[in-house]
Every structure is written in structure tokens, then in C-alpha cells.
Amino acid sequence: MSVTFEETGEFALPLPRHPAQPADELTGEDLARSRDRARVLAARGRSSRWFLLWLLVGPGILAMLGENDGPSMISYAATGAAYGLGFFLPFIIVTFAMAIVCQEMCMRVGAVTHRGYGQLVIERYGRAWGWLAAGDLVFTNLVTLIAEFVAIRVGLAFFNLGAGVAALLGVALVLMAQSGGRYWRWERIVLGLAVFNGLFLLSAVLVKPSAGHIAHAFLTFAPLPHGGFNEILLLLASTIGATVTPWMIFFQQSASADKGLTPGDLTHGRIDTVIGGVLAAVFGCGALVAGAALLGHGGASVDGLAGAGFPEALRRVDGNAVGALFALGLIEAGAVAILTISASTGYAIGECTGASSSFNRSLAEARSFYSANVLVAVIAAAVILIPGVPLLSIALNANVLATVLLPVTLVFMVMLANDRQLMGRFRNGRATNLAVGVTVAVVAVCGAAYGIDSFLLQVHLIG
Amino acid sequence: MRSEPRTPQPPALDEELFMALERDQLVAGRHRALAPARLSARARGALWALRIFVLLVGAMVIYTFFAQL
């Protein structure tokens, strides 16, 4: 048999790139993944460009639209309601550009190494770092998941449905989506739901914004937001936290490996990530533009998480259709995020414990993976049912906490993507390192500045 | 006449399907541990410093959250 030598990444040694040997021990996960890969190879062989793209998109779009979650959309709408069309409209585009750079790295590392983030950190840098990263992730995911259930509750409140329905809906979705034992099936269900993130764009169109004001905001980043230093820091940190988060890093790398992406699929993986980033930025801007319709109508005082909040305020100002679309959008945003965030928790725990962590496994084969998936969703659902829990504060602090803890996760991601032994010729280039370096610095400074400033204000060390 | 009992065969695998995977994509390949990376003392120190800093700021955010309830 002729063997072609090519750098495939692992240890960067010129490994013989030959097909798998039947002598290797096989599992159902291998067979499921090989079916998906066979379809990719067949599409590539037939030069079916669009079908190939359809087969290979998924993790990037899901990571990006998953991060256009309930609290993020409420945060964008609140920013629009308080400040109108100005600095934060183009700033959303900037933050998604940062997210694309980070997520492309995750996809690339997953496709080249076929391993998730947690597993790689443990194997390359030690168990302590892996568990610390997973610990951060589980904690921030739990807080964020509570906020997702709150968002669903806000959306359902518009249709006079209560917290119990929101809790049941979220948990039922998690159970239903993972019942097939195939990554492909799970991914397509979540992608189908994620399409409805476009409802925010539709509601923005229906409020009939001024095209001139939008163009002015994009071209000049003006008007700049007014307000106190701490308030601006909170807005910056929560907007960044609404676009780049630890769970996205865990999720896209693990999902790329679970999907079976290879170095040969990197171009499609990049397209997937860019499509996801562009869609998420457009829909996020849609939420801000819709919220800006409340400027001058007491929008800044709308309590977005009390009762029906923004959907109800939009209904009063722009009619029932806009309110209903925004409410449905919030239900979708919360639902997709519950699925992707709980999946990232399952991946992280599975990778750190060494247990099976793949949607291509059956329930019996990957109990800890599926249990972690469901357990975090159930805990978060239970919290929103407790009377008197400060849901508004939890939702607002979820993004900030994610921003504060993000730098360590990102630094390890950069180290992995630059690991010559691991990535070989697929390691980061200078331009990528520069872009990621700037992203890490911005995230670290904004998160830390807000955290420290709020603390000093709270303990009255500054006025 | 009684036939000899046969050794059970592993389930037949579609070889063409199996060839669609790279060797290190197999579960067995993915579970093969990688060698640990060697970090300099300075890099380890910088990582721990960042970690402690992030935990301190995280604690401040959590304190502020509870104090504002």
C-alpha cells in the first residue's frame, strides 16, 4: 500500500496519513462518525459545493447564535433603549469580529487534533489547569443557564404563560434534542431552532428605524454613550461577555471534533464560523435597533426581566406584532443557548473525567456526558421556580462574570493553537496571534476594570 | 452429524465507511494520551499570576453581586 506522508498535526511529526486500520478497536461512535464522514467525502468527490457546505456547517453557527442568547439580546435591547442608535451598534460588529478570530482558532484546534479543549489542556498542561478551566466553565454555565430560563420566562410571559412552563420547556428540549444518539441529529435540531434568531432582525425592520441614523452610527461610532464610568464599564464588559465566552471555546472545539472535522475541512469550518459571526452580529444589531424604538418612550426604565419587560414595552409603542416577535425571539434565544451551553458542560466534564463525551454515543455508553447535559439544565430550571430569587441581578452579572473569567481560557486556547508539536503547520500565524492578543487584552482590561471599580464603589473606597 | 461450534464473529463493518475516518479520529486514537508540554518556570508563574488575578476579580464581582441584593 502506498503511504503519503503529510503533517497531520498530532505531535507535528510527519505521520503516515493513511486510513484507519480495521484492527483498531471500534465503537458505535466511530461508526456513526464514519457515516457522516463518508457523506462528506462523497460530496467532495462529486464536487457538490453547496451540499458539502451544508454537511460541514454547524459548530460555528451554533456557537455564535448560541451566544446571541436571552440575556445578550435583552442587554442589546436595553442598550438601545437607553442610548439609542450610536456607539454600541458598530461596537457589536467589533466584538463579533473578535469572536470570529477566537472561534476560528477553536475550530482549527478541534479539527486538527480531534480532541476537545478540556482534554487537550489536561494532557498538555496538567490536570490542575484542566479542572480549573472546567470548574470556571461549569460555574459560569450554571449562572448563564439560569439567565436563559429567565429569558424564556420573559418571552412566555408575553403570552400569559408562567415560570413552570418555561422550566418544563427548557428541560424537555434538552431531553428531546439528545435522544437520538447521533451528533448530526442533535446539530440539525439546534440549527433548525437557531434560524429563528432572525426574529430580532424582523422586529427591528418592523419598528421602521431611520436608515440615516443607522448609517451614521456605523460610520462614526457616535453618539458616544453618556453616564458614569462604572455604568460604561458595565456596558462594555457585558457587551463583550455577550459575544466571547468560555463556553463557546469549549463548545466549538469539542463539537468540531465530535462532528469529525479534519484539517481538510478547515476552509469550510472558517466559512461556518464567519457565517455564524455575521448572522449573530446582524441579529444582535436587530435587537439593539428594536430596543432603540423605546428611546424617548421611557425605554431606559423598562425592566427587561420583570414580567414581559421589553416585549410588552415594544407592543405598547410599536404594536402587537413587534412585541410578539421579540417575545418569540427571546424564547428561541434562551432555548438554543440552553442546548449549546448544557452541551458544552457535558463535553467539559466528560473530557476532564476521561469518560465518553459525544453525541454519537448512546445514553448507556455516555451516561456522565448526557447526565451533565441534563443536570445543569434541571438545576437552572429549578432556580427560576424559587420565589424571590434575584433573577435580574443573576442575568446581568452572568455576562460580566464570563468576561472576567475568560482571559485564562483564551490564553490556554492561544497556547494550544500555537503548539508546534500539536498543530504543526496549522498553528497560529502572526496576524492571528496579534488579533487574539488584542482581544485578550481588551477582555481582560474591561472585565477587570468593571470588577475592581464596582468592588471599590461597593466598599466606599472611591466615590 | 454435529457441526463444530463456531467462534462468534465481530459484527461486519462496512469497510468503505470505516475508511472515511482518519486513524486519529477513532475513539481509540483520541484516547491515546499526548505527551505533556514543557512550560518554562516563567510561563508557569505568569499563568498562575493570571489565574489568581482572575479569581480575585471574580470574587469581587460575586461580592458586589451579593452586597447589592
Walk me through the structure.
The complex is a heterodimer of chains A (463) and B (69). Chain A is 73% helix and 0% strand. With 463 residues, chain A is mainly α. In chain A, helix 3 packs antiparallel against helix 5 (88-113) and helix 12 (229-241) packs across helix 20 (430-458). Chain A starts with 27 loop residues before the first helix and ends in a 5-residue tail after the last helix. By secondary structure, chain B is mainly α. Chain B is built from 3 helices and no strands. The interface between A and B is large, with 60 and 40 residues.
Tally of helical runs of chain B:
3
Helix content of chain A: over 70%
Q: What's the shape of chain A?
A: globular
Task: Determine the most extensive contact between two protein chains.
Answer: A-B, 60 and 40 residues
Q: Which geometry of chain B do the CA atoms define? A: elongated
Using the CA coordinates, give the radius of gyration of chain B: 27 Å
Give a topology summary.
The complex is a heterodimer of chains A (463) and B (69).
Chain A (H helix, E strand, L loop, with lengths): L27 H18 L3 H8 L2 H9 L2 H14 L4 H26 L3 H9 L1 H32 L4 H15 L5 H12 L4 H8 L4 H10 L8 H13 L4 H14 L6 H27 L16 H10 L1 H34 L13 H18 L6 H27 L2 H4 L6 H29 L5
Chain B lengths: L14 H4 L8 H4 L10 H27 L2
Short précis:
The complex is a heterodimer of chains A (463) and B (69). In chain A, 73% of the residues lie in helices and 0% in strands.
What attributes does this structure have?
heterodimer, A: 463 residues, mainly alpha, 0% strand, globular, disordered N terminus, B: 69 residues, 3 helices, 51% helix, elongated
